[in-house]
Amino acid sequence: MDTSEQLLTIMAVVLGSMTTYVTNYWTERQRIRRELVTRWDGKKLDAYENYVDRVRAAVFLAVELYEHREGIRESDDPEPQLRTQLIEAIRLQGRAFERIMLLAGDEVIEAAHDLNAASRAVDWQATGKTPGTLEDWRDRNRAVFAAINTFHEAARTDLGVSGSVTGESHPDRDLLLPDARDSEYQ
Q1: How does DSSP assign 101-155, residue by residue?
Q2: In the chain, which end has fewer C-beta atoms inside a 10 angstrom radius, N or C?
Q3: How far apart (Å, rounded) are the C-alpha atoms in residues 11 and 3?
Q4: Cα distance between residue 186 and residue 176, in whole Å
Q5: How far apart are CA 22 and CA 8, in angstroms?
Q6: pLDDT for 28-58, tens place per residue?
């Protein structure tokens, strides 16, 4: 075997080693990148779920307070206790919103801002800070649940989930309200 054949063999070995190294490096980088995306998507999903749960908890407490204040349905808890529970629910919703601000994309953050505004409108009428009729109350509740659906859409897009929670396959639904016992509350 002459020198040129030996050099050619050495060059082939070096080229093969370099190709193997580059391929392994690129594959490992892609694996790490996928793991990071998966890890952050899991954290985002947890944050989105917690935030919507906190919004709904505050809205349900606001409904209880409003119905108690307006004499629609008596609560087992006195009004001051209901107000305290609502304040705590709003505080926890604010903390959940901060996680959204840290993890979410622009569209999700904007949807969360809109949802916060709609949720506060419900809270303010429930506490009497904002006056309004029962129809105003129902409109505010419709708005908050429409904002939740918009938030869901933005979150699904951010997470890469296919499909939609609105549109032709999912017609608009109204609030689930019991039949009015008294025409005063219709």
Answers
A1: HHH--HHHHHHHHHHHHHHHHHHHHHHTSS---HHHHHHHHHHHHHHHHHHHHHH
A2: N
A3: 12
A4: 13
A5: 21
A6: 787 767 766 566 788 999 999 999 999 999 9
* Residue 91 tokens, joined: 């505080």
What 3-state class would DSSP assign to 163?
A: coil
Question: What is the pLDDT, as a whole number, of residue 174?
Answer: 64
* The total number of residues written for the chain in this structure: 186
Q: Is 160 helix (H, G, I), strand (E, B) or coil?
A: coil
pLDDT value, residue 68: 94
Residue pair 140/132 in contact by the 8 Å Cβ criterion: yes
Tell me the C-alpha distance between 147 and 182, whole Å: 30
**Token match 């303010």: residue?**
124
Topology of the domain covering 42-175? Four Helix Bundle (Hemerythrin (Met), subunit A) (1.20.120)
Check if the beta carbon of residue 144 is closer than 8 Å to that of residue 112.
Answer: no
- The H helix count followed by the E strand count for the chain is 4, 0
Contact (Cβ atoms closer than 8 angstroms) between residue 64 and residue 123: no
What are the tokens at 120? 């506060």
45 with 99: CB under 8 angstroms?
no
Q: Supply 59's token pair.
A: 């809205």
